[in-house]
Amino acid sequence: MEPASADRPALELLVHGVGGATPEKMLDDPRTVRIDGDDTAALFRRADDVTADAGPAGDRRRDTPVPEAYVWSNLTSGNGTRALWLLLLPFMVVNLAHWMRPAAREGLRAVRAYGLLVRLAALSLTVLLVAAACEVALDLTAWQCAGTAACAGRHSWLGFLSPQASDGGWWSLPGRRLALAALVPTALTALLWYLSHRTWRAYESQEPLDPTSEPANGPAHTALGRPGFWFGRRLVARLRAAHTAAALLTVAAAVGTAAVREDRRPGGPALLEVLGGLLEASLLAGALATVWVVCRRGRSEHRLDRRLDAHLVHRLPLAAFALLALTLVYAGWERPGWRSAGRLPGDAAFGALALSQGVLVIALAVVARILHHCPRERPARAEPDGTAAAGCGPQERCALRGLGGPAVTMLACALGGVMSGGVSQRVSDWLDGTGTFLDGPPVLLTWQASVIPVLIVVLLVLCCLLARRTVRLTRAEESAVVREYGVPRPDPARTRRIARARAMATLTDRGPLLVAVTSGATLLLGAGALVGALGTGKTPVRAGDGAQPLVQGAAQTAQALGSWLVGLGFVLFVTWGRRAYKDASARRTIGILWDVGTFWPRAAHPFAPPCYAERAVPDLTWRMAAWTRATGGRLVISGHSQGSVLAAAAAWQLKPSDRGRVALLTYGSPIERLYGRWFPAHFGPAALAALHEDIACWRNLYRLTDPIGGPIRLSGDDCGPQVDREPLADPLAYGRDEQHPLPAAVLGHSDYQADPVFAQERAKLLGRLEPEVPQQRV
User: 634-640 and 32-37: which strand pairing?
Assistant: First the structure.
């Protein structure tokens, strides 16, 4: 006979959150054993539980499952060198914007247009980064400083490039200096390609479980359940080839444009002029081919696309590299009388980039608004309070009314522009100490550095307003705390501490306001910088030159401050990044955005940091499917914080028959509070309601003092039992009593398992899951 379902083993698969955790802490036992996995991500059990599911449950209590910990912290942490990923923050942010599309029916042209515009914005950021490197290495260093005797004399390491040197070396010709300096942005491109290729082999090539052998229960309400969602091998390879080619073509254009301009002067060699025209035509053809590859195709998610466009992935970067090599040879040709004066023709290039990014953001905003007003996949119904909700899910709380993606894209472009302008101005100030030798970077970059202090003032004003609101909310929460705990003689300090924790936790819900103000201010300030650069013309070399004395003084002061602030920000970026990767507490503090950004696959920018979920989600899916089929037992996947998002994503990837045999326990979960608001197309009401209907049962725990976790907001009328439990008490006791002789701590986002309610809710899930387990086959 088959064993009864009550005798079958029960497994609790624990998934930790963003801060990371050790298996000893997760399992509450110093003796743990790794049962599967590697040094990057693995499954652990207590030493006494290694063979606990080999037979009947035995003397283990029915409400106490075998705990098993999935530790994935090494996917997002490592040595200090990984902090260099922070320098590519604009790439990660624009990739994040790709997934912020408003919820709409699949197949609409606006959906494809949204992804296309984000990919084009991502391509412009790659060009901007390499163009900034060319500005520093080619224009400021090799062209201006090495070509000026006074500047080259201050920096002895540039002596062999200076044409005023006594020996007049082979590298002193302007074209050869540019060709040599082009090695710097070329090496940067090679580094980006190497990092992307190495992480591509480690992350995107992890093949997930293929659920296509079993038909779905109904229409999919989220792309997270598609077989190829976590398998972006082909797309990332294509985008990597296109972005690498675009970067190399940018370097070639920076070197070749100066030589072509020299050859077109009256009296120049006719042969070189013809070669210059062919070179420009080749660069234009290469640019069109690169843009065509980026526009040609987005993600293929409906199946596991194991193909690889080898001819495109290998030939496009090689063709761009060959064109760059020919350009360097062409520029290094000896041209009598060619002298480096002024700046390289980069003003028009940076202006065109800034203008194109602004146009892309505005077009993306229009498309996002169209999608936001499109009918959803589920018909809306009326809530008791008169609001509309999709299906049995909550009212959709889409951030910024569908404009979250365009706002984040604007922030990515602003980050790229500010970093480019600030670094260029900082290097210019370092090379030209007195400010009299060099013309400096393009005027637009100096204006972009000038907007940094103004933006900081705007953010400080907003922070002051939010602090004022928090103080008021704290006072309002004090009466609620006293009423909930029912203390006759409250302690003012204790009450204030609890109320302040609740008020501070609500700041997470003000994130859309912060993003809206920041993106709107950067759009206006960026437009002002572009107009200011066009208004001052090409002759002035500093922001504000040629304007009124007051405007000129203010602009140059802001420029100097912005230059130093970018330098300080660079140091802080690296310092915080190293600390975040080496210190768990720092990673928990500043790693929220980072873990949210790297949760999503690289669908827009191949040089963004790798997606850890493309390893973690298949791991969890394979483990749940294999265990339920092998044992026929009960399984509760228990996720905290970001681990709850991974747990939900893994549940979506299961086959329908396996999904109906799994219970989900989430606590401190940002699924609706963060992901549901910012990523409505994937974690919107329809998607969450469909997940609740497909899995066996779901329970969510949260606290009012938790700044990250929150309710799922799924009603229990039409979707089965209620998902959210009432908020947990935090602290567990207001004052001292027999059960808490010492003052209880305000836990906030941590230690949910220490609450007695946790074990009670887990036992209820196991009890509800038990009748749904089918009999095991002979």
Answer: unpaired
**Per-residue DSSP letter, 418:** H
SS3 183: helix
CA distance 399 to 674: 9
Nearest-angstrom CA–CA distance, 666 and 671: 9
Sign of the Cα pseudo-torsion (501, 706, 737, 477, in order):
positive
What is the rounded radius of gyration, in angstroms, for the C-alpha atoms of the chain? 29
3-state secondary structure (DSSP) of residue 14: strand
Which pairing describes strands 662-667 and 697-701: parallel, antiparallel, or unpaired? Answer: parallel
Q: Are 636 and 697 in contact (CB under 8 A)?
A: no
CA-closest candidate to residue 123, choices 405, 353, 380, 359: 353
Q: Where are the domains of the chain?
A: 5-76+612-772, 183-207+232-334, 350-392+404-597
Q: Is-contact 145 437, C-beta < 8 A? A: yes
Beta carbons of 212 and 227 less than 8 angstroms apart: yes
Give the separation between CA 665 and CA 699, rounded to whole angstroms: 5
Class of 5-76+612-772 per CATH?
alpha beta
The set of residues, in sequence order, having a beta carbon less than 8 Å from that of 753 and lying 6+ positions away, is none
The percent of the chain in helix, strand and coil, each rounded to the nearest 5, is 60, 5, 35
Three-state DSSP state, 390: strand
Q: How confident is the model at residue 637 (pLDDT cuts 50, 70, 90)?
A: very high
Q: Which tokens hold the place of 87? A: 């320098």
Residue type, 137: A
Backbone angles phi, psi at 538, to 5 degrees: -95, -20
Mean pLDDT of all residues in the chain?
81
Phi and psi (nearest 5°) for 36?
-165, 160
Distance from C-alpha of 636 to C-alpha of 634, rounded to nearest angstrom = 7
C-beta separation of 41 from 75 below 8 A? yes
Relative orientation angle of helices 174-181 and 233-263, to the nearest 10 degrees: 170
> What is the three-class DSSP state of 162?
coil
Q: How far apart are CA 236 and CA 470, in angstroms?
A: 43
107 φ/ψ sector (left φ>0, alpha ψ -120 to 50, else beta): left
Query: What is the layout of strands, in order, in the sheet containing 634-640?
Result: 32-37, 42-46, 66-71, 10-15, 634-640, 662-667, 697-701
Residue 323 has pLDDT above 90, yes or no: yes
Sign of the C-alpha dihedral, residues 12, 17, 23, 25?
negative
Chain-centroid distance, C-alpha 759: 35
Contacts of 481 (CB under 8 A, 6+ apart): 490, 495, 498, 499, 502, 734
Beta pairing class for 10-15 and 634-640: parallel
Cis peptide before 731 (omega within 30 of 0): yes
Give 79's Cβ-side CA count (13 Å radius): 1
Contact present, 429 and 435 (Cβ < 8 Å): yes
CA separation for the pair 426, 375 (Å, rounded): 50
Segment 493-510, tens digit of pLDDT: 999 999 999 999 999 899
Tens digits of residue pLDDT in 645-656: 999 999 999 988
CA nearest neighbour of 701 among 665, 735, 674, 677: 665
Q: Distance between CA 560 and CA 564 in Å, rounded?
A: 6
d(CA 504, CA 89): 26
| pTM (predicted TM-score) | 0.88
- Asked if the peptide bond before residue 618 counts as cis, ω within 30 degrees of 0, the response is no
